[in-house]
Amino acid sequence: MSSNEYRTERDPLGKVKIPKRAYYGSQTQRAIENFQISNKHLPRSFIKAQGIIKVAAAKVNIDLGMLTKNLGEAIITASEEVINGEWDDQFVVDVYQAGAGTSQNMNANEVIANRANEILNKGTHAERIHPNDHVNMSQSTNDTFPTALNIAALEGIHESLIPAIDQLQQALNRKSEELMSVLKSGRTHLHDAVPMKLGQEFAGYAETIRSLYEEIKQNSEELYEIGLGGNAIGTKVNLHESYAKKVIAEVSKRTNYPFREPTNIFSFMQNRNAPLRVMGSLKELSVHLIKITSDLRLLSSGPRTGLAEITLPSVQPGSTIMPGKVNPAILEMTHMVCCQVIGYESTLSTAVMSGQLEINVMMPIIAYTLLESIHILANAITSLVEKCITGIKANEATCRKWMEESLSLVTGLSPSMGYDLASEIGQQAEEENKTIKQILIDKGLNTKENISAIDPSNFI
């Protein structure tokens, strides 16, 4: 840019050149210059939450006589534009930034202040809105940043993730019912085990997801505690005595979530307990999704050289060199997403334990990892349901073949023959590559009772 495309602002550290078209100011510009790290930014949901907080603070400050109506209403209008996404391109601070999220908070304060001043200039007002004195009135980064995270996380959980998990559970339940008539060989240690129903396998998956659904819902309730009004360290310095209760009520009104004051404001300022517990649940969900998707990959392996007990929907070609090959792409994608979330959980846990004394300065990375985990899990689970689970089909002939050839059918003979003799029959069947039934015939032990004992339907 040429020099005439910049404006110059002054802050406590001196003069700063800023693009003329930018709504942000000197502190944001310094952050841009200082933190050219990843080109990743906090998501739209977080920016929206910042806007909600600024609207609520301005309204309460007007009501309490702390902020003049004309300035406050301009701040509210500008903040509502931020909520609606009109200025997302002005939120430019890297995720890896100054501790606690001061740069992110000032990014919001400066954008809203400059836009509010633009609104005021359209009228006849001579007063000028200051990003700290007016937009940030009664606030600190230390109480607003964790609150914005809680608001954004709840939005992602309740509007995207919880519906996706519920959709997955229902899809697995329907698939369980659909496949309950299909008999197959169970497997333990990846070796033959006693027969079971394919639907029972899917019923296990469905119940696992149901329990995780309940756990995530329960842990997310801790996000309803927000520390607005705690200010810098929880002492509520420079605040009107009614501000905290009123601003939390205003945020609740604007989000339709039952936010409440923390049981202990100092604990809220010091710790990120709620994000830690929610992230732990997301890790657990990821661990189980990896298990389920790995199972489905095994069950669908082949189609000629693997288990091939189920068929997955074909979504795209699987090889650039092997014509006609189709891979379990959706399952692999889900597995990768879960690996990322497990890594994010480690990052978040390390960041949470890095809090010292009155605040945790690792808030930006805590916010990014939690919100990104919610986002990618919700999207992955939705794709998993729509492009994989609902289209799974059973290969009944293959299931029957493996089941009838399973050496574990000999288990049915143990009560009458004893463990040792049944083991000999199983070992002979393996050595001679015969079925258990064939060995019974060879040994003249094919009585009605013994044949019934190895009938797969009698195991279930």
The CATH topology annotation of the largest domain reads as Fumarase C, Chain A, domain 2
CATH homology superfamily of the largest domain: Fumarase/aspartase (Central domain)
* Form type: elongated
What is the distance, rounded to the nearest whole angstrom, between the alpha carbons of the first and last residues? 75 Å
CATH class of the largest domain: Mainly Alpha
Strand runs, count? 6
Low-confidence stretches: none
CATH architecture of the largest domain: Up-down Bundle
Biggest sheet record: 2 strands, antiparallel
Spatial ordering of strands, largest sheet: 1-2
Structure description:
This protein has helices at residues 26-34, 44-63, 69-83, 102-121, 131-135, 141-178, 198-220, 243-255, 265-270, 273-299, 329-352, 363-387, 396-405, 414-417, 419-431, 436-442, 448-453; strands spanning 6-11, 14-19, 183-188, 191-197, 310-311, 393-394. The radius of gyration is 30 Å and the shape is elongated. The N and C termini lie far apart (75 Å). It has 3 domains: 21-137, Fumarase C, Chain B, domain 1 (Orthogonal Bundle), CATH 1.10.275; 143-226 and 266-395, Fumarase C, Chain A, domain 2, CATH 1.20.200; 406-459, Fumarase/aspartase (C-terminal domain) (Ribonucleotide Reductase Protein R1, domain 1, Orthogonal Bundle), CATH 1.10.40.30. Strand 1 (6-11) and strand 2 (14-19) form a beta hairpin. It is built from 17 helices and 6 strands. The model has no long low-confidence stretch (mean pLDDT 94). 58% of the residues lie in helices and 6% in strands. The chain has 460 residues and is mainly alpha-helical. The strands form 3 sheets. The protein has a two-stranded antiparallel sheet with strand order 1-2. Strands 3-4 form a two-stranded antiparallel sheet. The chain has a two-stranded antiparallel sheet with strand order 5-6. Helix 1 (26-34) packs antiparallel against helix 4 and helix 10 (273-299) runs parallel beside helix 12 (363-387).
